[in-house]
Amino acid sequence: MEATMELPATDDEGYLVDPGTWSEELAVELAQRENIELSDAHWDAIRFMREFYQEHQVIPDVRFVARHLATRFGAASRNMIFELFPYGYVKQACKISGMKRPRGWSTG
Q: Are 97 and 50 within 8 A, CB to CB?
């Protein structure tokens, strides 16, 4: 039986209460709970989201992340974010990258 790490405080839906408690180790745990094995492309998206959040104190819109991935992996990858996080940008990408639940966003 695999040991799972103790999570920092989360809301009822599993989003971090304080994005400052996030770590890459925590991202791996959260991804496992979503049945996602993090690839280099996942990490690229997650790190971009974290940097954007640190700089602007807001969660990046999915368009910014898609644009970033297209710049890094080529124009054909503009929908890569939806392949990396098949159950949605908000539900999976935001949660794994340690964001609070975005207000007013009901879908990914």
A: yes
